[in-house]
Design brief:
The chain is α+β, with helices and mostly antiparallel strands. The protein has 3 domains: 96 residues, Tetratricopeptide repeat domain (Serine Threonine Protein Phosphatase 5, Tetratricopeptide repeat); 73 residues; 60 residues, SH3 type barrels (Roll). It is 55% helix and 14% strand. It has a 5-stranded antiparallel β-sheet. Strands 2-3 form a two-stranded antiparallel ribbon. Strand 5 and strand 6 form a beta hairpin.
Length: 253
């Protein structure tokens, strides 16, 4: 795997806040991973997740461990979860390992390029987490308040004019990080992505086991969730193909 197990964690360690139990368990899991005891390491990592803790480092290491025991579905799932909450600096290693796993998958699905505006928005959003964008938006908002105070308290007409214009421009600019913060928060809390966990499953034309099979899909393939009827999800593949999969064959990111 690229750069070993924990370069990502070591780089960000100074800014992470762990409880003693979580930190101890995390360190134990890392040592188990280094000793090639991947299944036991996975149990430790998932115990941390069960405590309610989420971080890119946790999901990154889980993805690495599952890849080592040849569980591509779980590996892809955890890399995708890491990407949802990772900042720009920590995304490269995650994306590299995710692509490495995808090259080993049975299904070779051509990825359609997204609409350029959607791609631009996603790239902008992925430069920071929802928390980062919220902080930026609040800073811009208070700067705009400062501009309006200059407008109200300025001693000269020129000061008032500059204060008003600056306040309006900065307030307008603050809309962008506010929007990105909301968008990132929605994605982080309720992603519309899922990963196939079954060894193989038929993509069907309708939510019924008797409906026509479009083609066979395998573990590790990512899909976008479009709709749900009972125990079936309507999904879209990365090549644009749509169909229905049983809920039990998928795990949501």
């Amino acid at each position: 795997m690229r750069k070993g197990i924990l370069n990502l964690f070591i780089f960000l360690l100074p800014v992470l806040v762990f409880s003693n139990d979580i930190q101890t368990t995390f360190e134990e899991a890392n040592e188990l991973y280094k000793s090639n005891e991947f299944s036991t390491a996975i149990e430790k990592y998932e115990n941390i997740e069960a405590m309610g803790y989420r971080s890119p480092e946790l999901y990154y290491n889980l993805g690495n461990a599952y890849f080592k025991i040849n569980r591509p579905g779980k590996a892809v799932l955890n890399y995708e979860r890491a990407l949802l909450i990772a900042n720009a600096k920590s995304r490269d290693d995650i994306k590299y390992n995710l692509e490495l796993v995808r090259k080993s998958l049975t299904d070779e699905i051509e990825i359609l390029p997204p609409f350029f505006l959607k791609k631009w928005k996603n790239n902008m959003r992925n430069l920071g987490t929802s928390r980062t964008w919220s902080i930026i938006a609040i800073l811009f908002f208070w700067l705009s308040i400062g501009g309006f105070l200059v407008w109200l308290k300025g001693k000269s007409r020129r000061q008032k004019k500059i204060g008003f214009l600056a306040g309006m421009i900065i307030l307008f600019i603050s809309v962008v990080p506010f929007y990105l913060a909301i968008d990132a928060s929605i994605i982080e809390k309720n992603s519309d992505l899922a990963v196939i966990m079954s060894n193989e499953v038929n993509l069907r034309s309708a939510p019924d086991v008797e409906s026509n099979s479009i083609f066979l899909l395998h573990e590790g393939t990512s899909v976008e969730l479009l709709d749900q009827i009972g125990e079936w999800f309507k999904v879209k593949l990365q090549n644009g193909e749509q169909g229905w999969l049983p809920l039990k064959s998928l795990e949501k990111v």
